[in-house]
Amino acid sequence: MTIVVIHGPPGSGKTTNAATLARFHGVSTIVDDGACMGQRFPAGDALVLTTRSPDEVREWQAQSRRFGPLTFVPIATALKSIGAQPPRQKRVKSKGESR
Predict the structure, then answer these.
(1) Cα–Cα distance list, 65 to 19, 34, 43, 62, 76 (Å)
(2) 11-25 pLDDT, tens per residue?
(3) Rounded distance, CA 96 to CA 78, Å?
């Protein structure tokens, strides 16, 4: 069983690159816990996209009574592995700053 957990903040490119990341890791099931809160942890090969910490993911796995090894990959490492760039962050102007 292969469960790869890609973790990172919202807007970091997890969902945008999900299909490519799944192919890279050789899995066909993608679970985006931001879009599917409350669902059970996957039982078989899967790519899990999350903003949760590794400890929170392990707790979710245990509560779902699913067991097996997990591979945690930070989103920056995952994007680098597929040759993708992180999304550009919008720059917030400070008060009084002109265009």
Answers:
(1) 26, 20, 9, 5, 29
(2) 999 999 999 999 999
(3) 38
DSSP state of 90: P
Among residues 14, 11, 1, 3, which one has the least CA distance to residue 77? 14
Location of structure tokens 């899990």: 48
Give yes or no for a contact between 81 and 6, defined as CB atoms under 8 angstroms apart.
Answer: no
pLDDT tens sequence across 43-97: 889 999 999 999 998 888 888 888 888 899 999 999 999 999 888 766 666 676 6
H helix intervals, the chain: 18-25, 54-63, 75-81
Cα–Cα nearest to 77, from 5, 2, 1: 5
Measure the CA–CA gap between 91 and 71, rounded to whole angstroms. Answer: 33
Q: How far is it, in rounded angstroms, from Cα 54 to Cα 73? A: 10
